[in-house]
Design goal:
It contains eight helices and 15 strands. By secondary structure, it is of the alpha/beta class. It has a five-stranded mixed β-barrel. Strands 1-4-7 form a three-stranded parallel beta sheet, with helices on one face. Strands 8-9-10 form a three-stranded parallel beta sheet, with helices on one face. Strand 14 and strand 15 form a beta hairpin. It is globular, with a radius of gyration of 20 Å. The protein binds iron/sulfur cluster. Iron/sulfur cluster binds next to helix 1.
């Protein structure tokens, strides 16, 4: 849309989560060199892009090199991208919880360009299942990290992925996931019903739960999260937010789409709205999937 650009900063993955085929199909992590990324972002800004999303399977383990042979980690890279004139919003994904550094939290805390949004895949609220998944963190470590992020950046929007029905998941494991979701109150949840990928270790794990049990768990999780999202969305009513208008909406009443810093979808109405501009808009009503706002 010439407003939001995507810049790949690395390829591959070294993590070998037991359900995932990526390390086998895309190989080991390879980080792009620093200058080529900075040049690509500067080029997008020169073309009028307002926002970039830095992409990688695990951006937190970025290890690039500059022309002088110095090593850069992800917080170094994002600090430099933050300094590019004319760029207004920076997003990135995906972050592996085990590699998210204190330095990155610091850079995010002090930047007004890096969006207050972090997609931090959890996958399960049971440390036993996390171990079977080879995620390399426990439930307690994830919760400690989430608390540290929220303390440093209180207005952060925290989103996550959860896999339901991983082989060996018991009712008790699932209840732990549900409790963690209820306590953490994620802003958005991407929920997946486990399906085996041929060639991955988990595809040969013993699995005792029936498809009906898994479907029941899945629906309970969706319902729990929908209730949380409905409450969170309703709390936006009457608030004024800074939005980036990024396209045309389907309905005539709110003819434009826009995104909040936390990446929520907003349908907008009002006078003289231009696609690509930042506006202040007041939230008039809310639904589960979208906010509705009028330009101020
Ligand atoms: Fe890597 Fe993500 Fe796949 Fe794990 S789930 S192996 S971190 S790409």
């Amino acid at each position: 849309n010439h407003i939001s650009g995507f810049v790949s900063i690395m390829r591959g993955c070294n993590n070998f989560c037991t359900y995932c085929i990526v390390p086998y199909t895309r190989g080991r992590e390879r980080s792009r060199d620093v200058e080529s990324i900075l040049n690509e972002v500067a080029d997008l800004v020169a073309k009028g892009y307002k926002e970039v999303t830095l992409l990688g399977q695990n951006v937190n383990s970025y290890k690039g090199e500059d022309a002088e042979g110095r090593r850069w980690d992800f917080s170094d890279l994002i600090y430099r991208i933050n300094a590019i004139d004319g760029l207004q919003r920076i997003r990135f994904m995906t972050s592996h919880p085990k590699d998210l550094s204190d330095e990155l939290i610091e850079v995010m805390k002090h930047s007004r360009k890096i969006c207050r949004h972090l997609h931090l895949p959890l996958q399960s609220g049971s440390s036993r299942i996390l171990n079977l998944m080879n995620r390399k963190y426990t439930k307690e470590q994830y919760l400690t990290l989430a608390a540290k992020i929220k303390e440093a950046i209180p207005d952060i929007s925290l989103t996550t992925d959860i896999i339901v029905g991983f082989p060996g998941e018991t009712d008790e494991d699932f209840e732990q996931t549900l409790r963690l979701v209820q306590d953490t109150r994620f802003d958005l949840l991407f929920t997946f019903l486990y399906s085996p990928r041929t060639g991955t270790p988990a595809a040969s794990y013993e699995d005792n739960a029936s498809p009906q049990d898994k479907q029941r768990r899945f629906e309970r999780l969706l319902k729990t999260q929908d209730d949380i999202v409905a409450e969170k969305q309703a709390a936006y009513q009457g608030k004024t937010l800074r939005l980036l208008v990024d396209g045309a909406a389907k309905g005539p009443d709110y003819p434009y789409t826009a995104r909040t810093e936390g990446n929520l979808l907003v349908c907008v109405r009002g006078e003289n709205i231009q696609i690509g501009e930042f506006i202040q808009a007041e939230i008039e009503k809310t639904s589960l999937r979208c906010l509705f706002a009028v330009k101020k």
